[in-house]
Design goal:
The structure is a homodimer. Chain A is of the alpha+beta class and about 400 residues long. Helix content of chain A is about 35%, strand content about 25%. Chain A contains 11 helices and 14 strands. In chain A, strands 1, 2, 3, 4, 5, 6, 7 and 8 form an 8-stranded mixed beta sheet that branches. A 6-stranded mixed beta sheet of chain A has the order 12-11-10-13-9-14. In chain A, helix 5 packs across helix 6 and helix 7 crosses helix 9. Chains A and B meet through helix 8, helix 9, strand 12 and helix 11 of A and helix 8, helix 9, strand 12 and helix 11 of B.
């Protein structure tokens, strides 16, 4: 798999632009538009937070109304349009209508996403001007502004996050391009952050939705920055069908094996990019729990370590403090055999069958200080299941970002 | 209720000293001994973490063996004797034996607690010298060193935490004195941190244990600093019976009403002292969830806010960021009616029936900057139940403490 800028626009049939309409105080691009040449099969997963943002509520209903057919996506950053009451729901719908009008599309063709501060009304005059700008640009430009689209959806992100893959469905080569944003309030539950993935594969909406749910469960739902689930998490998968051939009608089709693998790898790359760019992060941390009774328990134990402020602060301090990792596993609810538990950090074997292993603490500290990626493996000693979760360390910068990022 | 130094030694029949035996690198007192004049009824609650420390495993068994009768408590700080394997279990037992020998007590009279770094073997030569010193001091001194005992159990604590209360059982005045430690890895589950509470009340072990469980559920189990449960959490309640009269034999006795209330208030004071002294804390934060379907759901929602790094960092930044609090409630699993939810921070009414209330953000920021205690109230709009949880804000200092506090 290769990663490039403007990944979405490398998929035949998709254009994307980003513009500045003044929502972000920084003056950075803050509105993105993705437009397909023709209606696409669409599937999405959303936040499970009860306080779903207005665009999330709008989109859930939109996918039901249309049976999973869309042609455009409009995304703003700097304002989440979340917990904005009845007015917020009207604003989300209006944002869709403005996009459809500006792109010359019929009603119910546009999907809406917002990210940023919670509890403030969307600045609709700015949104309207941004949508007009974006639609104009996308008409006059063949889609070379795709990289600006990725930048326009960033909030506290330091790096744009994109991925691109090529694979086959049957005898047809197909392409998949994705872009996501997310750095804080990252602990997706059945969905994630904001993300758009485009493919020219021909897959019907129902199998597309099933495939997306499966893949998200093992990728985006296994990344966490701070344990906080967003009100706006949305991941959208659009399939234009322009690669040709009759659409795949069932997720169980053997023709989807290679596509499913490519989509999973692409989502893991994007999920890891989010953890690597977690607010204030200095390290990407991969936590694998094996020897668990079930995969769910392995995932729970891994996520408990991945959200432990104590463990994450130790990683920031380059401290091979395995005690904090085991204490977290011990409170996770996963079944564990304390006298069969083993643990490794990188190449350091630190715990063997419940007993501490003597190791060179200074050497381990110096080794950790040089790593930008650290792998922790713990074996719970009770079964054969495993799961991997990605997170980052916890630094002064995380506190600074979230103490200073004011309402 | 009054708070004083040396609270435990204000209870007739209890002496306590603290000494320095060189476990802490700082040279601060690091071993405490509490000695009762006669055997006491004893009840304790312990961590629910699967990786229970060696002293916890020893004490659980000790209370079973003795049916809840004890006369001494030995506590060291600087080394948790947790995840230290078979050797750690032998060291905990040896620590009890050394204490009993030094105090001239029969076997199975001494309770053992340890706190500090996980995964390192106890320095038994230092422990032995500390126990001898402490036993010698307690013999020659009537117990005026009680305040040193409180200091000897501190790790990252900045302040000693004690409380004292007087109440009645039937017609007899009784006294309750308690000391606790805890600042990080604080998220007790059915127990807490390290704590010793002494009373001269006459209560049998069985009702004492029942009373302690009930009180802890609404006090120490509702405080959190970082969501991380310790491997060593232990709270011990000793009742000497020296206040006289026949012992209370059932927790349902109407004579215990006033005692139970006094014990609850004392535990709330100690729990709040822990949150106020949370690692790096600048503010004590009290979170009350009301209008919940059940008390358990109210507690879950309150704890989810209380462990949200985003919300806690906002409090450090004096940012009235209610969106982060509602997002946390929304992912907590508690039933919530989004359009009936209301929220207050201090006197600021910020959300009314799911709609943001317009308020003076600058004034609210300035007000928060002046507070050392902040109260957040959220009404979930679905029932009549409520619960209160105590926590603190999340500062640079928390990260510093836990990045630098090396294994």
């Amino acid at each position: 798999m290769t990663v490039s800028t403007a990944s979405i626009t490398r998929v035949p049939g998709f254009r994307a632009v980003g513009v500045t309409c003044g929502i972000k105080q920084s003056g950075n691009p803050d509105l993105a538009l993705v437009l397909a040449e023709q209606p696409c099969a669409a599937a999405a997963v959303f936040t499970q937070d009860i306080f779903k943002a207005a665009p999330v509520l709008y989109d859930i209903d939109l996918l039901k109304r249309t049976g999973g057919r869309l042609q455009a996506v409009v995304i703003n950053a700097g304002n989440a349009n979340a917990i904005t009451g009845e007015q917020g729901r009207r604003d989300a719908e209006h944002m869709a209508r403005l996009t459809e009008a500006a792109c010359g599309l019929p009603a119910d063709s546009a999907f809406v996403m917002s990210t940023g501060v919670i509890g403030h009304r969307l600045p609709m005059a700015k949104i309207e001007s941004g949508i007009r700008q974006a639609a104009e640009l996308i008409r006059t430009d063949a889609g070379t502004q795709g990289c600006d689209a990725v930048r326009a959806i960033m909030t506290t992100d330091l790096a744009p996050k994109e991925a691109f893959a090529q694979t086959m469905i049957g005898d047809r080569p197909v392409r998949i391009g994705g872009m996501v944003k997310g750095s804080g309030m990252i602990h997706p539950n059945m969905a994630t952050l904001l993300g758009v993935i485009a493919t020219d594969a021909a897959i019907e909406p129902a199998p597309l939705a099933e495939l997306l749910r499966d893949v998200v469960g093992k990728t985006f739902n296994r990344v966490t920055v701070d344990g906080d689930t967003s009100t706006n998490d949305t991941l959208l998968l659009l399939a234009s069908g322009q690669a040709g051939r009759a659409p795949v009608t069932t997720a169980q089709s053997s023709e989807l094996e290679s596509f499913s693998k490519a989509l999973t790898d692409l989502c893991i790359d994007l999920a890891k990019a989010i953890a690597r760019d977690g607010e204030g992060a200095t390290k990407l941390i991969e936590i694998t729990i094996r020897g668990a009774a079930t995969e769910t328990e392995a995932e729970t134990a891994a996520k408990t370590v991945a959200t432990s402020p104590l463990f994450k602060a130790a990683m920031f301090g380059n401290d091979p403090n395995w005690g904090r990792a085991l204490a977290a596993i011990g409170r996770s609810g996963a079944r564990v055999d304390p006298v069969q538990t083993s643990l490794w950090v990188g190449d350091y074997h630190l715990v063997e069958h419940g007993e501490p292993v003597v190791f060179d603490v200074v050497a381990a500290h110096d080794w950790l200080a040089k790593q930008s990626e650290v792998r922790l493996v713990a074996d719970l000693g009770v079964g054969q299941s495993e799961a991997t979760v990605w997170t980052c360390d916890f630094s002064y910068k995380y506190v600074e970002i979230n103490a200073e990022y004011h309402t």
